[in-house]
Amino acid sequence: MQQPFPSRPTVIAALFAAGGAAFTAGGKAQADELAAAAPVPVVIVTGSRIEQDSFDFPAAVDTADAQRIGAAWMRVNASEALAAVPGLVVLNRQNYAQDLQISSRGFGARSAFGVRGVRLIADGIPASMPDGQGQAATFNLDLAERIEVLRGPFSALYGNHSGGVIQLFTRDGQGRPSVETTVSGGSDGTHKIDLNAQGETNGIGYVIDASRFQTDGYRDHSAARRDQGFAKFSVKPGATSRLTVTASTLTQDDTQDPLGVTWATFQRDPRAGEIDPTDTQTPNRTLAERYNTRKSIDHQQGGAVFEQHFGPDRLRVTAYAGKRQVIQYQAFSRGFQAPSTHSGGVVDFDRDFYGADLQWLAVRQLAGGKLSTTLGLEYNRSKDDRQGFENFSGAQLGVRGALRRDETDKLSSLDPYVQTQWEGGPWVLTAGLRRSSLKVEVDDRFLANGNDSGDVSYNKVTPVLGALYKVSPQLNLYASAARGFETPTLNELFYSGAGRGFNFNLQPASSRHFEIGAKAKLGENTRVEAALFQVRTDDEMVVDTASGGRNSYRNASETLRRGAEVSLESELGAGFSARLAMTLLRASYETGFGSVAAGSRLPGVPRANMFGELAWKDEGGRFSAALETIASSKLYAEDTNNERPAPGYAVMNARVQARQTVDRWRFRQFLRLNNVFNRDYVGSVIVGDANRRYYEAAPGRQWMIGVSAQYTF
Question: Which of 2, 456, 515, 575 has the highest CB neighbour count under 10 A?
Fold first, then answer.
């Protein structure tokens, strides 16, 4: 088996992509050669809640546009587009039962499933629950216009669990009606078909999309099928108003869960599952096969955003509601605990959720500049009817058995906030304040192991300050600071270290963020951004005990995150362009606890990661090609850092695309080859797994090909 360390050709390609961009940037760095005309501005709303050029906002914020989201990808995982964002680590577990692993400057890295510590929003509608847990799988990437990623202090303005913010915006229906279909396929029996329509009729804009994705999976027992639907309608009731309505669905039936594996199993065969040592009847059967680990998801959500302008002022009202049903079969060992003390290996819950956000923007002239102030009130609520069952019946495993849990869990949050920005002369000054609150209520109906009913409330005021100074039209310097707030998620409250019952004594983590940065335009064709940051966190939550598939959590010591981010984009001429994104991050425990020594690294957080791209397209945009390099340093899998870390790696991807227009038809074809040099490496880790099954293998060399056709009426 190949050792998972960077190969010489891969490193050379990465340096070539980065070096070409740096050479061009350096060659145009002289002040007397700076062009007067500025590049097309990148307009954002994340962070300030008003449209503005990201170059003039005092925070680290990046945008992945529709071209990057669809850059010869199947548009299935957000990791495909977000790899080029510094400060962000988006790991594809190759496990569609557990979703992506997303962290921003280290926040969210220890999530066992889904996304925590990073706020997810789609078209203004939260994709994260009130406790901060969210699912990136609900994003519709087929119709995505752009994804905005905010890191650093200003993320605190989005409340609980905002170590970063990822906000997706889908495109509006406009112009003549059109229909488009895309068919793609690739390695491991992977294929996807997508059909969408868009247009504007009688003042009503619409986009409608439906897709089916299916794969046999790279890892053993990792087959999945995902059906998604999306619709968006927009109308202008008046000359100064706008109403947008969205609806989405996500369905996954019996998505297989391959689980993690030990280091020895990964070395033997990266595709293999972990053998169940207790299976005497079928010695070579894996845990995943024996328990038939799987997960079914049925998610529906709808929302509406109404905007009314009163001159420069604006009223925005957002409301949404949805339902999520999940049934998951896990691999707990039979007889590991007495039946009265555990909730079983089958999770079954029905969730109803809804919320609203009322926002008023007032724009005034003050002291020779423009003052924009946003006042808002956000409310979110979810209710789970949750049951747990044994994952065996008689001698048969992987089936629903006896009832072991029956309860109703309610989460509610009410957050007032205010944010103001003054822009005048060379200065942009921003301040914000948010009071975040979360109430958790539990009504326990399974009383054989005692009554775990109860409630707990968390409250925190999070202030933000930022300032940006325009040194010249080509250079901005900024600094910002904030306090953050991260409550336990519902899943982290389920058990206490002493044994049974909810852990109502678990406290939220609080953090202090500082950031300084620079944004520079080097001529007309190159843009560079750099940031230095520090985050101190008190009461960081870590795994306390882990046994029988049951994790409990505790508050640990102070942690420290210090790092640097650099991103560069440059047009090199002759159709060539380059992009580079680099992150250095040291995330560690400042004081020890238990068996964890001071200075130990936070698991799941690489010390360095990089994305480099060298791309080309012809003058008419008919043909394009690119080489990509993704590299990461090693990942620790647990708090003591004593277990074998997942080694660092560097891989190269290649893609080509072609486009044609014939009358009212538009055609597109793409071919992509990932992991060109067929490296074996660990793509993600399951932090703190009790059985040391930490490692989740990334695929070897993989190909995918796709064609699309669009007809405009």
Answer: 515
The helix or strand, by DSSP H or E, that contains position 431, with its residue range, turns out to be: strand 427-444
Are 174 and 58 within 8 A, CB to CB? no
Statement: the pTM of the whole predicted model exceeds 0.70: yes
Helix/strand number for the chain, H first, E second: 6, 37
Q: Taking a C-beta distance cutoff of 8 angstroms, is the pair 489, 478 a contact?
A: no
Place of tokens 């027992």: 221
The structure tokens 């309608």 sit at 233
Three-state helix/strand/coil letters over 608-673: EEEEEEEEEECCCCCEEEEEEEEEECCECCCCCCCCCCECCEEEEEEEEEEEEEECCEEEEEEEEE
**CA-angle at 601, arms to 596 and 602, nearest 5°:** 90
Burial of 656 (0-12, 13-18, 19+ CB in 10 A): middle
**Measured distance between the N- and C-terminal CA atoms of the chain, rounded to whole angstroms:** 54
| 600 backbone dihedrals φ, ψ, rounded to 5° | -65, 145
DSSP letter assigned to residue 261: B
d(CA 422, CA 439) in angstroms, rounded, equals 35
d(CA 566, CA 538): 27
Q: Which residues contact 404 (CB under 8 A, 6 or more apart)?
A: 339, 342, 343, 344, 388, 389, 390, 446
Segment (H or E) for 332: none
> Residue for token digits 């190949």?
2
Distance of alpha carbon 394 from alpha carbon 325, whole angstroms: 27
Taking CA atoms, 108 is separated from 90, 268, 331, 376, 417, in Å, by: 10, 30, 24, 26, 24
DSSP state letter for 491: H
Query: For each successive 10 residues of the chain (713 residues), what is the average pLDDT?
Result: 40 37 36 41 90 95 93 92 94 92 93 89 95 94 96 94 94 96 97 97 96 97 97 96 98 96 96 88 88 96 98 97 96 51 80 98 96 98 96 88 94 97 97 96 92 94 97 97 94 77 90 97 94 96 73 87 97 95 97 92 96 95 95 95 96 97 96 97 91 94 97 97
